[in-house]
Each structure stands twice: as C-alpha cells, then as structure tokens.
Amino acid sequence: MSQNIYDKVKTNPKYAELVQKRSRFAWKLAIVMLVVYYAFILVIAFSPNLFAIRIGEGVTTLGIPVGIGVILIAFILTGIYTQRANGEFDDLTAQIKEDLRSAQ
Questions:
Q1: 32 and 80 in contact (C-beta within 8 Å)?
Q2: pTM of full prediction above 0.90
Q3: Of the candidates 35, 34, 44, which has an alpha carbon nearest to the alpha carbon of residue 67?
Q4: Which residues, in sequence order, are bridge partners of residue 61?
Q5: Could you give the CA distance from residue 90 to residue 54 in angstroms, rounded to a whole number?
Q6: What mean pLDDT is predicted for residues 4-27?
Q7: 80 falls in which pLDDT band (50, 70, 90)?
Q8: Backbone phi, psi, residue 61, to 5°
Q9: Segments making up each domain of the chain, as ranges
Q10: What is the average pLDDT across 46-61?
C-alpha cells in the first residue's frame, strides 16, 4: 500500500471512531480482568486462610473454585471482546474499506 492510502485511512473519521471505541472497550475489559486477578492475589497474600476453608468433607478448599472462576472470567471477557470485534469493529472496518474504494 502506498503512503497515500495510509493517509486516507488515518484521516477517515470512521477510523478515528474505530480506534477510539476499540481502545476504550479493550481498556475496560483489561481493567476488569486486572481487578479480578489482583483481588485474587491480594486475598492469597493477606488472608490465605480465607481460601483455605474446606468445601464439604473432601480436600477441596474455597481457593480452587475461586481460581477456576478467575480463569473462566478471562475466557468470558475474551469471548465478549471477540463478539464485539466480529460485529461492530468489523462493520466499521468494512465501512472504512468501502470509503477507500469509492474515493479511488
């Protein structure tokens, strides 16, 4: 691609909208994941007895399902991002491409 095409993409208002929406959404999801993860780590560091509570009469402690929950939240947030990326973000990308094709 030529520099001219890059300049047209960068000056397209839909591109600015795409970058802004995608960045804002990614930061929100990243903050949610960081809060969940660091809360988990802080409980382990400062109150390890909380996760050491046994569930039922077996050897499983509260920390196991909470840890699995942290992993599941990561998968769910990834799925949420992928769904939005394949929908709204791909639609904006297609509109930007169409604008470039019609301008040539």
A1: no
A2: no
A3: 44
A4: 54
A5: 47
A6: 90
A7: very high
A8: -105, 170
A9: 15-103
A10: 93
